[in-house]
Amino acid sequence: MKKLTLQGKLLLGAALLSISAGAQDFPRIAVNIGVHLIQAELAATPETRARGLMYRENLGQNEGMVFRFPAPRRVCMWMKNTLIPLSVAFIGEDGRIVNIEDMQPQTTDEHCSQQTARYALEMRQGWFKQRNIKAGELVSGLPK
């Protein structure tokens, strides 16, 4: 077996660190739905929206991810390489929830907004239902 040089060890270490730090390279924001406070990671660039919650093995009880799109439009989400069952709330420019969909891990089934949306909020599957959160409710604290 070939031994790694010091440079090889440093490159391997840097690669492993970047993989394990996946959640740390998303900015964090706090959003509210009524009395429910959510600590969310923000995916606002094409690269962060494409990666989303892929390869994560867990997600805290009141943690999620907000996807911000450049302009309101009909958007669709899928779960390729996503290991955690999620629910997604599609949210209009005014901050109101348009519709909520449950999504199964590691599938490419599309789940789409029923109207134009500026945001999508992914939470652990059932989070919205357990709190009786439905379409029409206001999400505050979303970035402009």
Describe the structure.
With 144 residues, this protein is an alpha+beta fold. It has a single domain (25-140), classed as Sandwich (Jelly Rolls), CATH 2.60.120.1140. Helix content is 17%, strand content 36%. It has 3 helices and 9 strands. The strands form 2 sheets. A 7-stranded mixed beta sheet has the order 6-5-8-3-2-1-9. A two-stranded antiparallel ribbon has the order 4-7. A hairpin with a 5-residue loop joins strand 5 (86-91) and strand 6.
Summarize the structure.
By secondary structure, the protein is of the alpha+beta class. It has one domain: Sandwich (Jelly Rolls). The protein is built from 3 helices and 9 strands.
Write the layout of secondary structure elements.
Blueprint lengths: L5 H15 L7 E6 L2 E8 L2 H6 L11 E11 L2 E2 L8 E6 L5 E7 L7 E2 L4 E8 L2 H4 L8 E2 L4
Parallel strand pairs: 2-3
Antiparallel strand pairs: 1-2, 1-9, 3-8, 4-7, 5-6, 5-8
Overall structural domain count: 1
Look up the CATH topology: Jelly Rolls
| Structural class designation | alpha+beta
Main sheet, how many strands, which sense, barrel?
Answer: 7 strands, mixed
**Beta fraction:** 35-45%
> What level of helicity do the residues show?
10-25%
Helical segment count: 3
Run of helices and strands: HEEHEEEEEEHE
CATH architecture: Sandwich
